[in-house]
Amino acid sequence: MEKFIMDDMPKVYFGEGVLNEAFTYELKSIGDNVMIAYGGGSIKRTGVYDKVISLLKKANKNITEFSGIMPNPTLKKVQEGAELVKNNQIDFILAVGGGSVIDCCKMISVQAKTDKDIWVMQFIDKNMPTDFVPMGVVLTASGTGSEMNNGAVITHEELKIKTGMRGALAKFAILDPTYTLTVPMKQVISGAFDTLSHAMETYFGKPLNDNVSDEINEAIMCNTIRNIRKVIENPKNLEARSELMWDSAMAENGILKLGKTGDFQAHFIEHQIGAFTDCNHGQGLAAIHPNMYKHIYKNAVNKFARFAQVVWKINDESLSQKELALAGINALAEFIQEIGLPTSLTEMGITDKNMLKEIADSCTISIGCAKQLTHEEIYTILIECL
């Protein structure tokens, strides 16, 4: 394992009905002016909004609302939210939603504390934020694990760049799996695949030797696969949804990444597909992973072979390490098809080869990937994904 520093994580309240308990304690220590941020309004249809507002009012908080956060939050939306925070002297931001809402709020927290454009600050001036408006999370859709860290994925529409930024770390995160019962199944499955992708991208990052972080990771991958199948079989299976919610948190709370340099090349590719097409993140990852892995597995044959044996339970002693590695990648591809996610970009309506060349040329190259791809290789992968 490589050297690491383990930072603090948000305080987590997990389980059915934890909102009351969490707010009873947490609202005492935050300021009076609270901004509640959410997406398209599904929290109003499900009743989560009413519960949150009622408890905030009971605690005598002054409430400002910020809605309409899109699935791929933009820099413009971040700046809109930051203005609202400044104009209303907001003391605390409460993100109620999934990863997109949380990511947007992390960066609103930063932008509200500076007059500088945060994109310029982080990518041109190379300065990382140190001052934040405090925030908390009520999670309603799992998969991204965004509630557990300070990373945020934001799209700059004019530049056509979708990338990670450093934002605020939530003071607390409320994870009630019952809130996911009303999430559309397509979103549940794509979110859960995002969890699996996070785990795989960490697992295949350097170093590739056996280590305790990766062995924990194997358990998370197995659990995620098993419970995706369970929730498809019975969408009301609350235990399976609970497991998926915690799998998501575990994949992004930093524990699996200790001593690792993550890969995340598939994410970097999907981010740029999203920047150009505004596609569903989990679906994009599903279309990319198997094809990308066929390009890099030879640089990590033993790791991919172990992935086949431990995660996909392929134990054919007649297979060579290379054959085992390929069998594991094929098992992943078959699983993607089994759970109803797209196996190609064409299924997602993405067919423009000229656009794919622009996407490939704009992709970040991962230093943690088993094989450092070139932009030309990424273009080849994207063409194979059609």
Radius of gyration, taken over Cα atoms and rounded to an integer in Å: 21 Å
Low-confidence stretches: none
CATH superfamily membership of the largest domain:
Dehydroquinate synthase-like - alpha domain
Query: According to CATH, what is the topology of the largest domain?
Result: Dehydroquinate synthase-like, alpha domain
Work out the helicity level: 40-55%
Helix/strand-derived category reads alpha/beta
The CATH top-level class label of the largest domain: Mainly Alpha
- Number of alpha- plus pi-helical segments: 15
For the record, the CATH architecture of the largest domain stands as Up-down Bundle
Strand content: 5-15%
Amino-to-carboxy terminus distance: 37 Å
In quaternary terms, these chains amount to single chain
The figure for the number of domains is: 2
